[in-house]
Design a protein that fits this description.
3-stranded antiparallel β-sheet; 12 helices; 39% helix; binds pyridoxal-5'-phosphate; 12 strands; globular; alpha/beta; 7-stranded mixed β-sheet
């Protein structure tokens, strides 16, 4: 078969496992169902499914623009923010160019690069966080080569280590990069971050008020809004970048139910329901982190809906131990384990298992 030879031996995306009868803490999903008001909007919309969705998503785009305080031409919708990432890489990288990112980060990044025959330039994390200085150095090194960097991905907070990069460091990074190099701020967990978070929306302009036209912020309804199964996210950026993404987007890729649900998420009522849920997760995050610290485990401060256990060589054994206790986390063998924060009951089950783990002979 004449399939691209570079794909033949390539690994696929490894999703978080679902094991019937076990508690799933493997995919950073919300433990809550969709917001009640969103479920109502979905059932009303279901009656219109004989029609195609609005390909431009005009109503949702306008509502998002108003909510985040930009113009509609600064917004692009996607079938999940992973799809937007793919489109951004497609729109920026020619074969052989590099996607520059910190690593370890989101498992999808290298696979999305490979899909368009781009290289993935993995810059090691420092203290479990993206090392912006080293990433800048990598971009500048590539500038002098045949294949300059095509795009830079900053996952903030970073999946799977849960850490953030600070405002001063991120601002200096953006200021030092070439102004025509697209930089993605992947903020899938933004809603769970604290007040000091370097919100990408505030970085779309420089201190002098001029637009950073190369920066695009990605947000999703998959995590805090509990709509991972519906597939919808959006990007906020300059019309140049937004239009480039639209150029490579497949027609009708954001389905009608997803558009209706996302719109319903933006009402004041839904927003306050979402914020209440996030608060509960943040309270549980603090409780879980403290309990893990008191077990002697060096869990980094999390700004997301998961915690990172840097268990190194013990990771595979811990993963097996947890599965024996009917808990499914996300192992990165040799590095660590990512555990999604869930309900108090499920978190208690996880803490009981961890207590038994550290007490094992
Ligand atoms: C979960 C996640 C996303 C969201 O993906 P969707 O396609 O919107 O579900 C994006 N980036 C990161 C880093 C994530 O962890």
């Amino acid at each position: 078969m004449r399939i691209r030879p570079d794909l033949a031996s390539a690994p696929g995306y490894v999703p978080g496992k679902s094991i019937p009868g076990s508690i799933k803490l493997a995919s950073n999903e919300s433990p809550f169902g969709p917001l009640p008001s969103v479920a109502d909007a979905l059932s009303r919309q279901a009656e219109l499914l004989n029609r195609y969705p609005d390909p431009a998503g005009l109503e949702l785009t306008a509502a998002l623009a108003a909510q985040v305080g930009v113009a509609p031409e600064n917004i692009v919708l996607g079938n999940g923010s992973v799809t937007l990432l793919q489109h951004l890489i497609q729109a920026t990288c020619s074969p052989g160019q590099s996607v520059v990112s910190g690593w370890r980060s989101f498992e999808a990044y290298p696979l999305l690069a490979r899909n368009v025959a781009a290289e993935f330039a993995a810059v090691p994390l420092a203290d479990e966080a993206m090392d912006l200085g080293a990433m800048l150095a990598e971009v500048l090194r590539l500038e002098g080569t045949e294949h300059p960097a095509g795009i830079v991905l900053v996952c903030n907070p970073n999946n799977p280590t849960s850490t953030t990069v600070g405002r001063a460091a991120l601002t200096a990074f953006l200021d030092a990069l070439p102004r025509d190099l697209v930089v993605v701020l992947d903020e899938a967990y933004r809603e769970f971050a604290g007040e000091d978070f370097a919100d990408g929306l505030t970085l779309l302009r420089r201190a002098d008020g001029s637009a950073r036209e190369n920066v695009v912020v990605l947000r999703t309804f998959s995590k805090a809004y509990g709509l991972a199964g519906l597939r919808i996210g959006y990007g906020i950026g300059s019309p140049q970048v937004v239009n480039a993404v639209k150029t490579v987007t497949l027609p009708f890729s954001v389905n009608m139910l997803a558009q209706a649900a996302a719109l319903a998420c933006l009402t004041p009522e839904a927003q306050s329901e979402m914020r209440q849920r996030v608060k509960e997760t943040v309270v549980e995050r603090a409780r879980l982190t403290e309990a893990l610290h008191s077990l002697g485990l060096p869990v980094p401060h999390s700004e997301s809906n998961f915690v990172w256990l840097p268990t190194g060589e013990d990771t595979a054994a811990l993963d097996t131990f947890l599965q024996d206790n009917r808990l499914v986390a996300r192992p990165f063998p040799g590095e660590g384990l990512r555990v999604t924060i869930s309900t108090p009951e499920e978190n208690d089950a996880f803490l009981r298992a961890m207590t038994a783990w550290v007490a094992r002979p």
